[in-house]
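To assess whether ligand presence alters the predicted conformation, the chain was also submitted together with zinc ion. Input:
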Amino acid sequence: MSDRFFPNSMPDFVPENPKLSEDEKEKAKQIQINEPGTDDSLQRLLSLPHSTLSQQLQRAALELKETIVLETWGLTGQRVEDYTLYTGTLGTAFLLFRSLLVTRNKNDLSLCFQMIKACDSSSINSRDVTFICGRAGVCALGAVVAKYLGDDQLLYYYLAKFKEIRVSKDHPDELLYGRVGYLWACLFLNKHLGKDTIPSTSTSTIVSEIIKNGRNLGKKGGSPLMFEWHGERYWGAAHGLAGIINVLIHFDLTLDEREDIKETLRYMVRSRFPSGNYPVSEEDRRRDALVHWCHGVPGVALTLVKSAEVFGNKEFLEAAMDAAEVIWNRGLLKRVGICHGISGNAYVFLSLYRLTGIVEYLYRAKAFACFLLDRGHLHMIRGDMHGGDSPFSLFEGLGGMAYLFLDMVQPKNARFPAYEI
Ligand SMILES: [Zn+2]
């Protein structure tokens, strides 16, 4: 068995059985409760009609959410040590926001707001500007949640605070700590509060600077765009090309900027490993090991799906479908989270399902979610699956699993948190 992933022995496709009797559905539920982790329990879950399975996933998500709130908020005396969405309190707030949109439970809204308020105080002097690891996440989520609360004064407060954030020359270009991580927060605000909440006049200079930096490091005949973070030219979603392109393609671009982006994606596709996986960086082109959102094929695949949609381009869709095969075979990671775990990898299938409507992709997302539902806890208790360095967090821990389960309830509305808009 590989060190990094469980071999995927689940069938490539199991059609839903809409004629399953109530007795059979109940039996599947009981087996899952009493004898999880067997081939039988997983197989029964996979053949459940979506409506029945989604109820089970929602129930599991809401139970997990209670535990996560207790561990990251209740038991900490509501103190914020790490405010970020990635591993901290804002990640729990983001989970509550997702839960609100699925269940319409108003308690989620008020608790979410209390957490954002605490994150606001804790991040007031932070120089980090991104959605996932910085102040932009706090202010953008604060403004959107204020709108759901119907509190205009708070909405203006958080928007004003957002507009105080300054992206400086010292910030890198990448997603977790850099310019595109700030731009993603602008996209989030425009999606939820109206398309000119942050007008393009406020973002166009940042977009141009990123492209300019990319061209300076890019090469004719190779990749037209290339970026560096801490001395390494990364390819993945967290620090590299995939993450940067994924954000840039949402903005107005000139014809030659669009061409440079397309050519950069083509460079990546033709330079991928024979296995179909993608290297971590230009400097690390031999090690075909990581199948993570942060480093490797899953983050690239999500960018390819979005690029196929934005550019109406069949070659990017085909590359994304190739990527999905790698993730199906090597993506059942021995980790639970969104960033480098099974939960995050499931989103590639959801994204392809949304774009193509092909039910096999919905099945594959369901299979990854069922694997976690059926045996995630068992594997973690036994120690053969890592629960994350921050075990209740959104990006590394159980928060990601709960978020995925909630997204499985309305799979067409699923979005990889803080990456797909
Ligand atoms: Zn990661």
